[in-house]
Design a protein that fits this description.
- By secondary structure, the protein is an alpha/beta fold.
- It has helices at 4-16, 19-26, 30-44, 60-87, 100-117, 130-138, 200-211, 225-233, 279-296; strands spanning 49-52, 55-58, 92-99, 121-128, 144-147, 156-160, 163-165, 167-171, 192-195, 218-222, 238-241, 254-258, 264-265, 268-272, 303-304.
- It folds into 3 domains: 4-87, Winged helix-like DNA-binding domain superfamily/Winged helix DNA-binding domain (Arc Repressor Mutant, subunit A), CATH 1.10.10.10; 92-162 and 267-295, 3-Layer(aba) Sandwich (D-Maltodextrin-Binding Protein, domain 2); 164-265, Periplasmic binding protein-like II (D-Maltodextrin-Binding Protein, domain 2, 3-Layer(aba) Sandwich).
- The strands form 4 sheets. A 5-stranded mixed sheet has the order 4-3-5-14-6. Strands 10-9-11-8-12 form a 5-stranded mixed sheet, sandwiched between helices.
- Helix 7 links the parallel strand 9 and strand 10 (218-222).
- Helix 1 (4-16) crosses helix 2, helix 1 packs across helix 3 and helix 5 (100-117) crosses helix 9.
- The longest helix is centred in the first third of the chain and has 28 residues, at 60-87.
């Protein structure tokens, strides 16, 4: 197999026109250049240069080799550049399993910001339920998960992003929008949209109403916050969900008020401990944390730093 170092010397001689020029360009001694050239000619079995009137002249055979040599070093340069991008988290493919609500808000916002700085990163985003997203991470099907609640699955590295409070989402002209906080008595006999009781948030909401001795009128139980916002917009009722969608700017006709007593969830980044985490995934995790911090500064936000 040809020695790439010898080819590098040959290329330097061609470009500089002399052994001494190649030695200076490569920061090596002239004897080292001469030896490398001789070894390359032995490996190839052809002469690469001739002395003509005291000058080193490339042979026709070597001239025909030069395009292939340049192509080789172009490939090598591309490999080096890609490695640099991967090392800095600026290249590669990211596979993410995120709960639907966070994929449509926090994750999509972070991707938009990240790709502006790192356009060579390609994303594969799967919007799933909390359980399925966690399973995708646990089975090493994706590089990263973004969950909205703690998971029972072990073998994961969890990085908390924030604490998210449940709020009451309603139309801007709703009578309850005049209140600073919303509690179970305020929602008596009102049609409610919230998560199903099989979810952590849904069960917490029902327990809060039970403790307040206030009956709930659940008009629609679901597992997707974005759908809750759409149903509020359609006039189905008010929703007890998180504030992530309202921060997207797509629901300016709606408003949100904190629900009391406070119900919180803890969105987190999760990695599988049995799979090596790509450098680009660590870089994107930092972008997610920065995006989350920006969201906590929004006056409409019910998101708090951990």
């Amino acid at each position: 197999m040809l020695n790439v170092r010898y080819l590098k010397v040959f290329r330097a001689i061609v470009k500089s026109g002399s052994v001494s020029g190649a030695a200076r360009a490569l920061n090596v001694s002239q004897p080292a250049v001469t030896k490398s050239l001789r070894m390359l000619e032995e490996d190839l079995g052809i002469a690469l240069f001739q002395r003509v009137s005291g000058r080193l002249v490339i042979t026709p055979e070597a001239q025909r080799l030069m395009p292939e040599v340049e192509r080789l070093f172009g490939v090598l340069s591309g490999i080096k550049g890609m490695a640099d991008e991967l090392r800095e988290g600026h290249g590669g493919t990211m596979t993410i399993a995120a709960v639907t609500t966070l994929s449509l808000s926090l994750v999509s916002k972070a991707i938009a910001k990240f790709t502006q700085q790192h356009p060579n990163v390609r994303f594969e985003l799967k919007a799933l339920s909390t359980v399925l997203a966690a399973q995708h991470v646990a089975t090493n099907y994706v590089d990263m998960g973004v969950l909205d609640a703690p998971t029972e699955l072990s073998g994961m590295e969890a990085i908390p992003l924030c604490r998210s409070e449940v709020g009451c989402v309603m139309k801007r002209d709703h009578p309850l929008s005049a209140k600073e906080y919303i509690g179970p008595p305020d929602l008596l006999n009102l049609p409610l949209i919230t998560f199903g009781e099989e979810t952590f948030t849904g069960m917490s909401v029902r327990n809060t109403f039970y403790a307040a001795n206030t009956p709930m009128k659940v008009q629609c139980a679901l597992n997707n916050t974005m759908m809750a916002y759409v149903l509020v917009r359609r006039g189905v009722g008010v929703a007890l969900v998180d504030s992530f969608p309202i921060l997207s700017g797509d629901f300016d006709d709606l408003t949100i008020r904190p629900f009391r007593p406070t119900i919180t969830t803890q969105p987190s980044i999760v990695f599988s401990k049995s799979k090596a985490v790509p450098l680009v995934a660590r870089a994107f995790a930092r972008a997610l944390a920065e995006t989350t911090e920006e969201m906590t500064q929004d006056p409409r936000s019910l998101i708090r730093a951990v």
